[in-house]
Amino acid sequence: MVATLFIGILFFFLIGTPIAVGLGLGTTVSIILDGTFPLVLVPQRMFTGLDSWPIMAIPLFMLAGNLMDEGGLSKRIVQFAEAWVGWIRGSLAMVCVLSSMVFAGISGSSTADTAAVGAILMPTMREKGYDMRFATVLQAGAGAIGPIIPPSILMVLIGYSTNTSVGQLFMAGIIPGILVGLCLMVYSYIHATRRGDAYVSTTPFDLKVALKRTWSALPGIGLPFIIIFGIIGGVFTSTEGAGIAVLYGLIVALFIYREIDIKALPRLLLSGAESASMIIIITSAAYIFSWYITAKQIPAMLTDFMNTYIHSQFLFLIFLNVVLFIIGMFMESFTAIIVLMPILFPVATSFGLDPLHFGTIVCVNLAIGYVTPPYGATLFVSCGLTGKTIREVVPFCIPVIAAMLVALIIVTYFPDLYLWIPRMAA
After folding, report:
1. Using alpha carbons only, what angle is made at residue 319 by residues 298 and 315, rounded to the nearest 5 degrees?
2. Which residues of 50-86 are buried (b: 16+ CB within 10 A; e: fewer)?
3. What is the DSSP letter of 222?
4. Mind listing the pLDDT tens digit for each residue in 251-292?
5. Distance in angstroms (rounded) separating the CA atoms of residues 72 and 119
6. What pLDDT digit, counting tens, does each position of 17-27 carry?
7. Quick one: pLDDT at residue 200?
8. Which has the higher per-residue pLDDT, 325 or 4?
9. Residue 387 domain-assigned?
10. How many domains does the chain have?
11. With contact defined as beta carbons under 8 Å apart, do 415 and 357 qualify?
């Protein structure tokens, strides 16, 4: 029956069935052929999968990100980043990365991050003479930081799938997200030193301008700090924090920046619901899969297999990263989490991995998958902004992925570098 399960799901994927439908149908067919469980368990488990308090945070964080983006925050973040790093060689590349890091603390979504910042910066980089193949991939890599720096939709799903505190996962992602951004900045600087005059163009640093632009962006930048400190202080849970993020986004967009009005709210609510519904449907279908493989004791069998052939945590971490890297190339991250966590998490705990360490590795690894062809979600968004094809930008993917892999290695083998934050708050 195990072979039937995976062959069935693969078949539905190959014939072009949507991921959620293929996953649900493949599992349902396997349950029917198995004959051990009544079919009524399928809708029951789908409902149970969504009957979760933490998962409510997903549509709320997505709506908050939409409100802040449409409310004029993205352009203020770009101006803020330009004021602080615009004096460095390859300044626009630095602005691209820093802006995405800051916006990541607002949206929690890689594609939203890529689209919001890229729509502003890509035309400017083209005008200044940047190689747009480089700019396209850099923006894709910078946008991929979105799910690492809190609040993170990916972290919500990881916490939900592994029964780990979402708030602590948020805190564990702060330093890794910054680390990925720093690695991309180092690569940008190295790239700029080897290029022509376009990359020399900089904006002289002016402290007065920097402080003024910081003040302008501060209402939006303050959101992640409110959420993180609210969770650390025990004022609210991560899901309640998502609701507060929506209220805060409304206040900033309507009354501080005043770039949207009441008439725009129905459209923004619908857009947020459409985006969240995709994740919710995938989650409900994938929950059937995760329940079924657990019932058939596949995680336990895999744990026994891994303990037989892999004898150290060091080697398991290599295996984990290789598997996640390959999966990230071909599978959408939300689906990958719901499908893989019931399989990999029990194995990880058998090797003594801290759940926060494990969750952070998964998040960073799948973020790299956003830049890695053939799937590359942020890569496709970025290509859409610049008009470049995937074939054109592939050579520039390699150094960006390499820079992100450096951060992943540090995250994997030096967990104390960032886990002290959630441990301190525990």
Report:
1. 115
2. eeeebbbbbbbbbbbbbbbbbbbbbbbbbbbbbbbbb
3. H
4. 888 888 888 888 888 888 888 787 777 777 777 877 788 788
5. 13
6. 777 788 788 88
7. 67
8. 325
9. yes
10. 1
11. yes
> What band does 163 get if pLDDT is binned at 50, 70 and 90?
confident
Tokens, residue 242: 């998502």
Q: How far separated are the first and last CA of the chain, in Å rounded?
A: 42
E strand or H helix that includes residue 403: helix 390-413
Contact 363, 154 (CB under 8 A): yes
H runs (alpha helix) in 296-332: 298-309, 313-330
Residue 196 pLDDT: 62
118 within domain boundaries? yes
**Sequential DSSP letters for 330-345:** HS-HHHHHHHHHHHHH
The answer to whether residues 136 and 386 touch, using CB atoms and an 8 Å cutoff, is: yes
3 state DSSP class of 398: helix
CB 294 within 8 A of CB 45: no
Q: Is 4 part of a structural domain of the chain?
A: no
Place of tokens 């022509």: 196
Cβ-contact 335, 282 below 8 angstroms: yes
Nearest one of 65, 57, 56, 59 to 250, comparing CA atoms: 65
pLDDT at 416: 95
Q: If DSSP codes are grouped into helix, strand and coil, which group holds residue 89?
A: coil
Domain that holds residue 347: 40-425
Q: Which residue has the tokens 């059937």?
A: 288
Helix 333-350 crosses helix 19-34 at what angle (to 10 degrees)?
Answer: 50
Q: What is the 3-state secondary structure (H, E, C) of 253-285?
A: HHHHCCCCCHHHHHHHHHHHHHHHHHHHHHHHH
Q: Is residue 110 part of a domain?
A: yes
Sequence length of the chain is 426
What is the pLDDT of the chain when averaged over all its residues? 85
- Those residues whose C-beta lies under 8 Å from the C-beta of residue 353, and which sit 6 or more positions away, are 313, 316, 317
Q: Which two tokens stand for residue 108?
A: 């929690």
Mean pLDDT on 53-69? 78
Any alpha helices (H) in 149-297, and if so which ranges? 153-162, 166-172, 174-193, 207-232, 238-251, 265-295
89: alpha, beta or left? (left if phi > 0; alpha if psi -120 to 50): beta
Q: How many CB atoms lie within 10 A of CB 191?
A: 20
Entry pTM = 0.84
Please choose, from the candidates 72, 182, 64, the residue with its C-alpha nearest in 3D space to the C-alpha of residue 116. Answer: 72
